[in-house]
Structure formats: C-alpha cells, structure tokens
Specification:
By secondary structure, the chain is an alpha/beta fold. The protein is about 45% helix and about 15% strand. The chain contains twelve helices and nine strands. Helix 7 links the parallel strand 6 and strand 7. Helix 2 (about 55-65) crosses helix 12 and helix 5 (about 130-145) crosses helix 12.
Amino acid sequence: MKKDILTLLDLSKQDVDDLLCRALELKQRHKKGILDTPLKGKSLGLIFDKPSTRTRISFEAAMVQLGGTPIYINARETQMARNEPVRDTARVLSRYLDALAIRTYSQDLLKEFAEFTAIPVINALTDLYHPCQVLSDLLTVIEYKGGYEALQITWIGDGNNVSHSWINSAAVLGFKLVLACPKEYFPNSAVMEKALAKRSDTITVTTDPVEAVKNADVIYTDVWASMGQENERNTRKHVFEPFQVNEKLLKNAPENVIVMHCLPAHRGEEISEETLEGPSSVVWDQSENKLHMQKAILEALMTQNK
C-alpha cells in the first residue's frame, strides 16, 4: 500500500525516528564518498507552482545521488493550465512516474493528487504545511542537541505553514513547543486544535518572545510575509518588529541555544545580520540537511513495496 506525506500527522513517531536515523546514515555515507543507488531506474516528478531554491534542488540532487531521475514539471506549462482535471493528470502521471513531490498553494489540491495517484505524493510546501522542511530541521536539532525528546523548541514570528508543521511534529513526537506570535498572526486554529487533541500539555502559544526563549534549546524564525503575502509586507513589518530574533533577544535565552531559519532570510527583519551570521546560528548545516532528509524520504516511500 502506498504512503504519502501530506502533513507530519501522516507519520508515526517510529516513522519519523526511522527517517532521522536513515538520513543521518546517508549523510555520513555521502561524506565518505560511498554511493547508494536504491532508486536506480526510478523517476520523481516535481510539480512546482511556487518558486523554490532549496526544496527543488535538494529533491533533484537527492534523486540523482540515489541513482534515480528527477523530472521538473512547471504546472503552468502542462494541460492543468488549460483546466484539465487534477484527477486526470494524477492518474496519467501514476503511469509514468514512481513518486510526486508537489509545491503548491492549496492543501486540497495536494490531497486530490494523493487520492487519484497510485504512487507516493510528497508535500514540498503548501500554504498550510511544509513537512519535509521540519523533518530536515529535526535532523539538524539531533546533530547539535543529541535528540529532541527533552528539548524546548521556540518559534518566533508568523504562525505560518512551517510553524504548522512544527506544531504537528510536536504532536507526534512529544517535545515542548512554544510559539511566540503577534495575536493577529497566531497559527491556524484548526491546526492547533488537531495537535492539542494529541498533546495538549506540550504546545503553547504566547505573544511574549522574551518569555518564550527563556528555556529554549532551539530558537526558530521565518520570514514575516510568506509567498503570496508580499502586499502585506509593510503592514507586517510594523507588527512584527518586536519579534525580531537578534542578540538582544538571545540574551534572554540559555547560552547554548541554537538559532534556525529555513531561508530565504530577510536580514534586518525577522533576524538580524549579526545573529544570522553569529555563533548560535546553524542555518547553513540546516539547509544542507534538506538534501539528506529528502534522500531518506524518497528511499522510504519509493522502495516500500520491495
């Protein structure tokens, strides 16, 4: 039976732990120059409605390094742009490809692809979730902190799609998650309700970033205006100014805290230049780890029937 990753709630704790373990192993083998080609002869379709640097290239490079072939598909250049039903496209692509990674706006569109394909569908970002990002982030957390179980992850900024996937991951894995957001930019209430039904004691939301970082092992931030919200940028800048991750905020956190950002970063907005380039920042290792986690995800989903 095929498995999709549309949100992190599609995975069990064991699923996540297995992916983290395998991603770390694949990274170590890659560093030693060992070639692993379990996806030889397989192809991955990448349907992207939104721009991408790290997600697209990490999926493409991951597929190549595992011996397979990535096929980039600009949705605007397909018959979907001429109103071919998603279900028709999905059923045809199932006959050509071994998996699909989709980066789009609507979570419902992603669900429809998953419903009508016979191959695994991977969420490479929607307006609601970004599960692969957080899986790779957890790999970085483990490398720097040795695990995740006893940690506090603190999110500072907008209650956006990446924050939603952190909420889901806390619900699945049970670590403490504190989100500090302006009141009008709290995470989606339906996302919160579903997560709190699983872990009501480990996930909290506040409007106070200083209080939120006091016991943080990890401080995480993202842009204040996501893709599609560019016209709100000036308004958001004013509201979010007190939520900038900078050296002043870090003085309230433990000395060994690490700072993460999924990139691209707007230096001087959600994070200061000094902090992004400072000793607490792990963003470059974090970005690299997308490659190794994508490899683990692709291998797990595309060889599951072997």
